[in-house]
Task: structure prediction
Amino acid sequence: MAVRRHSLQRLSSPSRSVSMILHTAGIASFAWSFRFLETIETPVSGSFGGNYQFLTIIGLSLALGTFVIGLLADLTLSPALFEAKNFLAVCSAPLEILVSILYWGLCAIDKSLVCPPGAELDFLPDFSLHAAPALFLATDLLLLSPPWTINGYAAMALSQVIAFLYWFWVEYCYSHNGWYPYPIFDLFSTSQRVFLFTSSAFLMTLSTMTLKWLYGKVNGIEQFEKEAVSNPAGL
Result:
C-alpha cells in the first residue's frame, strides 16, 4: 500500500526516486566506513568491545539501520517501514549531530583528546565517520520526513537514557580493558565524567530542538520555528 505524503513534508517519501537515491547513497557511505574500519588495526579494535566502544561507531550503526529501513520502505512503499525509519531517526539524527559537534569541537581544541595514539585518520575516512552521517540524516529529516512531534522534555529524557547507557557501556569495557577508548575520559574524575555525559545529553536535546527549528525554517512552517524556540517543552 502506498504511503500518503504528509502535507508538511517537502518531498515524497518513501519513493523510488529522490528518497531511494538518498538512502542508497547513505548506506553506501556508511558501509564504506565500516569496511574501512576492518582495514585498520588499533589497540581499541582488538580489545573488549572493539570499535563499538566509540560513540561514533554506535551512532554509525544506528544511522545505517535507519537508512536500511528507509530504503526498504522506498522499495516496498510500506507505511509501517516508513514509520519505523522515522522513529529510529528521532534517535539517530540528534546522536549523529552530537557526534559531529563533540568530535570536531574537541579536535579544534586538541585532537589527541579524542584520537588515541596511532588512530589518526586521513580526511576522507574522518569526514565519512564524523560528518557524513549527520549530513545524510539531517537531509532525510528536512526533506523526506514528516515533522517530528517530540517535545523538549521527551527529547531530554531520551538523550539522558542514551548518554548514561553509553557511560555504563564504556565503564563496563574499562573493567575489562583497563583503559578508555577516548583519551579525554582518562583526564577526568568520575564526577567530571558524569558532568560530561550530562552535558552531552543536554547538547543532544538542543540538537533535536534545532532540527525541529530547521524543519520549520526549510519547510516554511512558522509554528515549528516558534515551538522550538519559545516553547521547547511543548507545554
